[in-house]
Task: inverse folding
């Protein structure tokens, strides 16, 4: 049950060469500012607060610099080498203090003489582990930050990029990635999107009741509704779970599934730099069949599994550099080449779901510039991912009791959308919307 509700309705104004206008995430600052954001909120506190506060006089949050070790930092606070080793040992069940990432935040508490009495570190969303030094021994306690469920309804104009515009109006990166992954079954993000197109999402997040430097702000984003207008054509999608066993999917209002078998574009924010077909090879010099698509993007851009399947190769593949090969149903395979690195856990035999991150874009092997080389094979023959007739793989539309239950979900979501009145959109935004329709 949803006990809490914060409704955010935001209008984003972006057009042509204009840059995105930022709508602050700091909701309280925006209350009463009718030009930008309308906020209605009801707070209750469903989660118990567990806080273990050591006796303390001063507290500071430090971030690990590149190449800096936690024990090195602690030495500055008078922690001996032996105490450091004991700390690493005691913290092992939660995290390896010797493998903390650069930028990891650590809260240090000192007594009046400046000696360290406790340190706190986030281990996952809303969970903090505190090591307190008591008579020379470490005492470890785990605490949970207070969280609340927050409903968010956000609408904006695509602008220069759907991704950056959505971030600008406060949509979490995970939500945008989800929406783009779902929509990429139907929308060609390389070409179809225009800066006047409109997006809208309704979702529920678990958020910290109060910001804390040791934890990210929110997690567990459940997207209920996605709408994207592409060159005047609306894609309106509702999330529905057939039963507790099966994974939910997004459907059009009439019960047709939007999820297709294989993605045409297995990454976000990329530029299609070379198509399928005969071309002169930039390094080898002679004309040959380019058996896939090349996508130019920044090194490190996450690459997604195009569909559900099993990893058969995740290793060095000569001219392909670091490559991943995935086997899908119906005789299909997908190949991802020139990767900078593989995602955690991606190895031969690993099962993956559509949209899982399998690696990161790079320029390894026979490659001139950072790009993803993406191939699809059907029964051993390379095929063009862009012309793959994905409609053959649509799952059956919902019917019977499932359709009835789904339509109830649709009605509930529609009521939720209507109750969040969009009280203001700038003239520029409205003009864009009117022009499109
Ligand atoms: Zn290529």
Result:
């Amino acid at each position: 049950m949803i006990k809490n509700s914060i409704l955010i309705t935001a209008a984003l104004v972006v057009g042509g060469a204009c840059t995105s206008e930022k709508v602050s995430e700091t909701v309280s600052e925006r209350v009463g500012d009718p030009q930008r954001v309308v906020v209605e909120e009801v707070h209750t506190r469903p989660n118990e607060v567990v806080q273990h506060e050591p006796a303390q006089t001063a507290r500071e949050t430090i971030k690990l610099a590149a190449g800096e070790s936690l024990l090195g930092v602690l030495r500055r606070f008078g922690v001996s080498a032996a105490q450091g080793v004991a700390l690493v040992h005691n913290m092992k069940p939660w995290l390896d203090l010797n493998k903390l990432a650069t930028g990891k935040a650590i809260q240090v508490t000192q007594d009046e003489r400046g000696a360290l009495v406790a340190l706190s570190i986030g281990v996952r969303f809303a969970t903090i582990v505190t090591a307190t030094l008591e008579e020379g021994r470490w005492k470890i306690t785990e605490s949970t930050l207070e969280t609340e469920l927050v409903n968010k309804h956000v609408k904006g104009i695509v602008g220069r990029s759907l991704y950056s515009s959505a971030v600008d109006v406060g949509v979490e990166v995970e939500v945008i990635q989800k929406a783009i992954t779902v929509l990429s079954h139907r929308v060609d993000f390389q070409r179809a999107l225009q800066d006047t197109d409109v997006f809208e999402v309704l979702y529920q997040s678990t958020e910290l009741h109060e910001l804390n430097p040791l934890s990210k702000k929110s997690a567990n984003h459940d997207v209920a509704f996605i709408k994207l207008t592409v060159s005047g054509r609306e894609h309106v999608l509702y999330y529905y779970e057939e039963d507790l066993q099966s994974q939910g999917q997004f459907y059009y209002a009439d019960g047709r599934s939007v999820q297709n078998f294989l993605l045409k574009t297995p990454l976000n924010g990329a530029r299609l730099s070379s198509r399928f077909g005969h071309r002169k090879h930039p390094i080898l010099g002679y004309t040959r069949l380019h058996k896939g698509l090349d996508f130019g993007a920044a090194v490190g851009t996450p690459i997604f599994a195009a569909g559900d399947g099993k990893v058969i190769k995740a290793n060095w593949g000569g001219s392909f550099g670091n490559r991943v090969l995935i086997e899908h149903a119906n005789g299909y395979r997908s190949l991802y080449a020139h990767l900078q690195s593989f995602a955690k856990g991606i190895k031969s035999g690993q099962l993956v779901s559509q949209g899982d991150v399998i690696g990161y874009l790079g320029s390894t092997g026979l490659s001139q510039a950072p790009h993803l080389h993406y191939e699809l094979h059907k029964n051993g023959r390379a095929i063009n991912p862009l012309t793959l007739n994905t409609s053959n793989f649509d799952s059956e539309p919902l019917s019977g009791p499932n359709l009835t239950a789904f339509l109830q979900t649709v009605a509930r979501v529609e009521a939720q959308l209507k109750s969040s009145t969009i009280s203001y959109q700038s003239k520029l935004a409205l003009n864009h919307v009117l022009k499109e329709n």
About this structure: The chain has a mean pLDDT of 79. Helices lie at 27-30, 70-76, 81-91, 162-168, 173-183, 400-419, 427-436. The radius of gyration is 25 Å. The domain at 58-144 is CATH 3.10.450.350 (Nuclear Transport Factor 2; Chain: A,).
